[in-house]
Amino acid sequence: MKSPLLSATGLQKTFRRGENRFAALAGVDLEIAAGETLALVGPSGSGKSTLARVLMRLIEPDAGALRFAGENLLALTGSRLRAIRSRFQMVFQDPLAAFNPRATVERVLYDPLRIHRIAGRGERPQRIGALLERVGLADTLRGRRIHEISGGQRQRVAIARAIATGPELVVLDEAVSALDVSVRAEIMALLACLQREQNIAYLFISHDLALVRDTAHRVAVIDQGRIVETGEAKRLIAAPASAMGKALVAAAMKLPRRNGPEFLP
Ligand SMILES: Nc1ncnc2c1ncn2[C@@H]1O[C@H](COP(=O)(O)OP(=O)(O)OP(=O)(O)O)[C@@H](O)[C@H]1O
Ligand SMILES: [Mg+2]
After folding, report:
1. Do 112 and 173 reside in the same domain of the chain?
2. How many structural domains are present in the chain?
3. pTM of the entire structure?
4. Domain span at residue 214?
5. Which bound ligand lies closest to the C-alpha atom of 222?
6. How far out from the chain centre does Cα 114 lie?
């Protein structure tokens, strides 16, 4: 890989559990290239969301190194951290929990523009219009409250918010998992279009191996806080090498294919 956009080495994060501590991340090494989709798959509790939060600097790791675009991310503080934050964003599974549900769509999209001082105050309403158009939402939605719009519309707002600062990396933590199949396909098409046009890299966290196979370039398999396998998506899912990779594929094959007789070839 040419010099990666993001690289993590030896990331560790422990949490307290009763009297003891346990490692949610037990030495994670990971690289994400500019413009690629890296899927992160693993069983529930394997550390996917914890890793996402550490990469986004929402929580601090106990050990390890993290570089973004050549910068030592863990060493940055204050205004330099604020500045680099505009370059990576996250979309969560449930935008109702991530946003104030009583906030209007306009408010949700205004905040990142204000915080990162993007465009002058007078220009921002127009910027918001452009963002809405970018994610396929009608301009008439801007005055609606988050709790008044549909789940698919809300996830488009979450994507609009994530791309408002022109990020190079967007982490999608089960961002399409709660959507029904047709809305999910629309959002995946939107994400692919944004990636083509803006060269955004995605860390795509998902339990849906069929979706991962069809949309990701590479896959990383995480098990008990360690990356146990990475590889090209179609190849890895066709022939996983790790025990966890094999178990995830075997479990997926037991599920009926959503739109076909069989899940995997
Ligand atoms: N703030 C916290 N305090 C204590 N334990 C935590 C905290 N956050 C996560 N954990 C624990 O760390 C482990 C990894 O959790 P994490 O949310 O990263 O898993 P995940 O792979 O995202 O799972 P899922 O697929 O269910 O979303 C779990 O055992 C979880 O209970
Ligand atoms: Mg999670």
Report:
1. no
2. 2
3. 0.93
4. 1-87+169-256
5. 1
6. 23
